[in-house]
Write a structure and sequence with these properties.
The complex is a heterodimer.
Chain A: H1 2-9, H2 18-39, H3 42-49
Chain B: E1 3-9, H1 10-39, E2 45-50, E3 53-57, H2 59-91, H3 98-118, H4 134-156, H5 165-185, E4 187-191, E5 194-197, H6 201-236, H7 243-257, H8 272-284, H9 286-298, H10 304-309, H11 311-333, H12 336-342, H13 346-375, H14 383-416, H15 428-433, H16 436-466, E6 472-478, H17 493-498, H18 500-524, H19 540-551, H20 566-572, H21 610-618, H22 620-623, H23 634-637, H24 645-654, H25 663-684, H26 694-704, H27 707-716
Antiparallel strand pairs in B: 1-6, 2-3, 4-5
Classes of the chains: A mainly alpha, B mainly alpha.
Chain lengths: 64, 717
């Protein structure tokens, strides 16, 4: 199995372009993510960020 | 909408909390002990015979025990404690299966016990932070799957539609650690507790540090960021500063981290393009890391007055600050010019301990102080003791880190200093003896930190005693509707965040891109590792000697990688080439030089006689005054296990090492002849020894190091 991959992959040309492809993927990914985050609504963000602070939890002892 | 009643499982949280506390103390105690061994080398106990096995309490065997204990036992249990507590509450459901939770808990503890037994016995792969041998690796895989299964099952039966950002970090942790562990642990078993890595030399180094770096990223960082995003808002009683920032933090962090591994291998024989890739992505990492730190600290905006009063917040603030410091330092250390100074020195040790003690340690303590009183329905036994712990712990970090930074700089400058006549100014040994005071101060800092954790053990024990565990905590939440209708203006990303499986797949793709881009070319293109025709496989005796070198953990102090600097080639000889390591399963480049590099130990100016090595293993201080190396006198008496030779040769053949067919059967004959030659050589110097002693094999290995490439140069001339 390993030999099969090795023998074939030996013949891949211009494999050094891999890092560039990686970088391009990241930049595209990052920009799309920024646009997405920018478009999120204020209410939605507030709702999400309050998830850990569930007020329905029973009264907890005050700590320190 | 119907409200459902259910119960959170606090028992599993308590169990993991106890394990965190106990293993934390054990791991830190071993840390203090190994720090002391560098000050008092005579305290090393290299061998206690246990039947045919050799139990060792020397630095080389205990240092991996310390790192494994603090990473996988202390932080590991800390992760599970925090995940089991927060996951149930964020998803408004009990863990899906109490049985899986129990299997996970006990399985993980058994793995830790197995590590605590096997590492002092010298059963090790020698791959840093992945030293455990193959049966334990299989157990880790199995238990990790149980953890993931339980987590995803819980996510699927949740009552809260959205997955809070902390859960994203948990999912990324699960997926990535699984990939890292499996890829790095691939090995061919030779016996019940011995295996050879399927990778060799440069490839092994690349896989190992891709793993090593991402073990830091996905075991010590991402799960703890998840905990930060849950417990810090809880402790401060206010939401995270910016949820937007947390999304950017998450995706860019997991994308970038996976590429950064090669920064551990700068100036080594790793192909240049891979080193550059590592530098670029490591440097970029500062942005998401600091985004996360700022997000954590700004969560306390308007509540800084609370920090003065609340010891839990104090712990958390120091933790997040330490995260910021170490993630600033990390990218700096990955720059080539800085790395040229820092690599192989104690600077790296200082760096990891700012992260380990500061980020992981202090956050764990903060969470424990917050969580234990809550699940035991009581107040913390003593705020005063917690405050003392905070200060003594913080001081401990300073006393640990400052001397180690100093030692690192000093060491590096001494290694590199030349006299006006162009000679190296310092012998290697001087660079060790001058560090003694720093080692002593570091042990003091570590002891302070350890004492702090013992105070916490007492404080939490007293808290537990005055409270009672609420094993099943009642809660209520409406059931989740079967279908969710997309509301107007909702973004495309929302459905992914609601669905854990697509989320897992996207995460997997993101982390795989970096790994594949880094590794595929190194594995597949022959030109990346130019072969050197004079480099030959190890003889059977050298192979056995190499395995003893691995067993004793020599790599924890000695590197085998000469970087292309004048100061290194002048001290050690010709710099290391990728093609020299093609038969090294596993590689032994090391990561720190508390002892000299050994890549050219058998050649040039470094070559010593067989009798020098014999006497040096017996009593290093008698030969090199001021040396901190443990004595390995037991190897003079201990018989070499030659029964394992044929199996080892066959395993190497399977891995592609070109021993001739049928060599396994004649290997012990060759071994015998070479051992007798060394014994005869020793006799000339007045040392009488039987040939089949372990020390003979290690001498054979020492004398082989660097020899092949010197032969090739002689031939060329």
């Amino acid at each position: 199995m390993l030999k099969f991959i090795r023998n074939h992959a030996d013949k891949i040309e211009h494999i050094n372009i891999f890092p560039l492809i990686g970088l391009v993927i990241f930049v595209v990914f990052f920009i799309v993510m920024l646009i997405y985050v920018k478009k999120m609504g204020r209410d939605e963000l507030s709702e999400l960020s309050h998830l850990p602070l569930d007020l329905q939890e029973p009264n907890q002892p005050m700590n320190l | 909408m119907q409200v459902e009643k259910f119960y959170y499982d606090n028992k599993i949280v308590r169990n993991f909390a106890y394990a965190t506390i106990i293993w934390g103390a054990v791991g830190m105690l071993i840390g203090v002990w190994v720090a002391l061994l560098m000050v008092f080398p005579s305290w090393n106990i290299s061998n206690i015979s246990v039947g045919s096995e050799s139990l060792g309490l020397s630095f080389g065997r205990l240092r991996p025990l310390h790192t494994n204990a603090v990473i996988f036992a202390f932080v590991g249990n800390g992760i599970f404690m925090g995940v089991y507590y927060s996951l149930q509450r964020l998803l408004k459901t009990r863990m899906a299966s109490d049985l899986l939770s129990k299997i996970h808990f006990w399985g993980w503890q058994l793995i830790i016990v197995a590590a605590a037994v096997t590492l002092p016995l010298g059963l090790t792969t020698s791959k840093e932070y992945a030293e455990l041998e193959w049966p334990i690796d299989l157990a880790i895989t199995l238990i990790w799957v149980v953890f993931g299964w339980n987590m995803f099952w819980t996510i699927l039966k949740r009552r809260e539609r959205h997955l809070y950002v902390a859960i994203w970090f948990y999912i990324a942790t699960f997926v990535t650690v699984a990939v890292l562990h499996i890829v790095n642990s691939l090995a061919i078993p030779v016996s019940a507790f011995k295996s050879y890595s399927i990778y060799a030399g440069v490839q092994d180094a690349l896989v190992q540090w891709w793993y090593g770096h991402n073990a830091v990223a996905f075991f010590l960082t991402t799960p703890y960021l998840g905990l930060m995003y849950y417990f810090m808002p809880k402790a401060a009683n206010r939401p995270v500063y910016s949820y937007r920032l947390s999304i950017i933090h998450f995706w860019s962090l997991i994308f970038l981290y996976i590429w950064a591994g090669p920064h551990h291998l700068l100036y080594t024989a790793l192909p240049n393009w891979a080193q550059t890739l590592g530098i670029v992505f490591s440097f970029t990492l500062i942005f998401p890391s600091w985004g996360g730190m700022i997000n954590g600290l700004l969560t306390l905006r308007g509540a800084w007055d609370k920090v003065r009063e609340d010891v839990i917040l104090k712990f958390m603030v120091v933790a997040v600050t330490a995260y910021g410091m170490s993630t600033f330092e990390g990218p700096m250390l990955s720059l080539k010019n800085v790395n040229a100074i820092s690599h192989f020195t104690d600077w790296t040790i200082a760096h990891v301990h700012v992260g380990g003690l500061g980020w992981n340690g202090m956050l764990t303590f903060g969470i424990l102080y917050w969580l234990i009183p809550r699940i035991f329905r009581t107040e913390l036994y003593s705020k005063k003791l917690a405050n003392i712990h905070f200060w003594i712990g913080t001081l401990g970090i300073i006393f640990y880190a400052v001397p180690m930074y100093w030692a690192g700089f000093k060491q590096s400058l001494m290694w590199k200093e030349f006299t006006e006549a162009g000679q190296l100014k310092y012998q290697f040994l001087e660079t060790v003896t001058q560090l003694h005071p720093f080692f002593a101060l570091r042990a003091f800092g570590g002891t302070l930190f350890f004492i702090g954790s013992l105070i916490m053990v007492y404080n939490l024990f007293a808290t537990v005693k005055k409270g009672s565990l609420l094993a099943d905590e009642a809660a209520e939440a409406p059931a989740l509707e079967g279908t969710h209708h997309k509301h107007a203006g909702e973004h495309w990303h929302r459905p992914i965040e609601r669905k854990p499986i697509p989320f897992l797949v996207v995460t997997l793709i993101v982390i795989l891109i970096g790994g594949i881009v880094e590794m595929v070319p190194t594995f597949m293109i022959k030109s990346n590792i130019p072969t050197i025709s004079s480099v030959k496989p190890y003889t059977p005796l050298e192979l056995q000697g190499r395995d003893i070198y691995l067993r004793e953990g020599c790599y924890t102090c000695h590197s085998q990688m000469i970087r292309p600097f004048r100061s290194e080639t002048a001290r050690y000889g010709e710099y290391s080439k990728a093609g020299e390591f093609v038969y090294d399963h596993p590689f032994q480049w090391g990561s720190k030089r508390s002892g000299p590099d050994l890549a050219r130990e058998g050649t040039g100016n470094n070559k010593k006689s067989d009798s020098w090595h014999y006497n040096h293993f017996d009593d290093p201080q008698a030969i090199s005054t001021g040396s901190i190396m443990p004595s390995y006198s037991f190897m003079l008496d201990r018989d070499l296990d030659t029964a394992s030779t044929p199996g080892k040769i066959r395993a190497m053949q399977k891995l592609g090492v070109p021993y001739p067919e049928g060599f396994d059967l004649q290997a012990n004959g060759d071994l015998d002849a070479q051992a007798k030659a060394i014994a005869a050589n020793l006799k000339k110097d007045g040392i009488e020894t039987a040939p089949h002693k372990e020390v003979i094999a290690v001498i054979a290995y020492m004398q082989r190091l660097g020899k092949d490439i010197t032969q090739s140069q002689t031939a060329q001339k």
